[in-house]
Amino acid sequence: MIEDKFERENTKPASVIAKELKDIINQELVSYLGAMTLAQPDKFKAYTDVLNTLIEENNRKVRDRIAAQKKKREEAEIN
User: Fold this and answer.
1) Has this prediction a pTM greater than 0.70?
2) In the chain, helix, strand, coil percent, each to 5?
């Protein structure tokens, strides 16, 4: 019981972990893959292409979700 409470108090929230992971991907992995794609395109271009596709798909989903929320708020204001 005490150990569980200690563990909960010292565990990062999922939103913090998600932000940290996003920062690592955006600042380190994307830069690394970009440089390695220039240096050794035959080995790294496929990885870079997959990462770019995943990022683009995620960004599209976020844009769609934000647009849907905005539309819902606007409709609520009208009614």
Assistant:
1) no
2) 90, 0, 10
